[in-house]
UniProtKB/TrEMBL annotation:
UniProt keywords, alphabetically: Membrane, Transmembrane, Transmembrane helix
Region Disordered, annotated ranges: 85-104
Bias kind Low complexity: ranges: 89-101
Protein name in the entry: Uncharacterized protein
Bilayer-crossing regions: 117-136
Amino acid sequence: MQTVVPRTANFFTRFLNLRGSWSGVPSKYVDGAQTPLFLRIPPWWARWTWALVACDLFMTGSAIELTWNHWSQLVSDLEKIGTKNKEASGGVSTPTPTTGTNSEGASYIMRPAWQRLGLCAAHLTLGVGVAAALLVTQARFVRTIAILPPATTTTPASQSGRRVFVQCAHNWRNHGMTFSLSRCSLEEGRNETEMVFRVLGERGHWYVGLQDAIVHGHQVGVLQARNAILEEWRQQGEGKLKRVGKWSAKAKVETNGKWKSGPVIRNVQ
């Protein structure tokens, strides 16, 4: 029997382990006797997301420091601007103080604080945006799916009926989240190598990659993985096809994507 152990769910736990899910129960997959329905190694960038975030923050901090302390302008350019303003207004321009000279004798002055502050804010916004995008996207790639039996008396009543244990790329070891199977659905992905996992009431969705997937402990092809997962989904869902979601005819036809005409059908190993 496949089982999970619920863990205490507070805001900090949800942020670290669910990252965007509020209805799932933080759980721990403890069944070592039976393999999960679906397993897949996440993409390299999903496994090294925190390293990429660290590099992003380092580059962002370096750009901010360089902009604030070293973004300067040639004094000659300022003098030209001052001369033009003087000619336009008929006033007297004040001399511009210098901050240093280069090897050719050209003098530089720091740009106004509002310019440097604006560019620093742009650097910070871009860096934080990239880091947030990496973290959110990492949490949307599924690496483990297991269909569990109905909840026991020790679990919340809201988790009655069969459940789905989902582990994403950002979850450590055997940690993940559990949803009620009646609220879950599988839909067609962006192409034949992907499915989309949705939960009623949840924001967004999760990506289930079928390339190099392991289904019931065996590595199979894309079409075999998809068909096996959908068949298991139907059986565990008591034959209710509505839990599978809406699939287009294109996703159900096992044909070669390069095929234009004729009765050529791709062989499924």
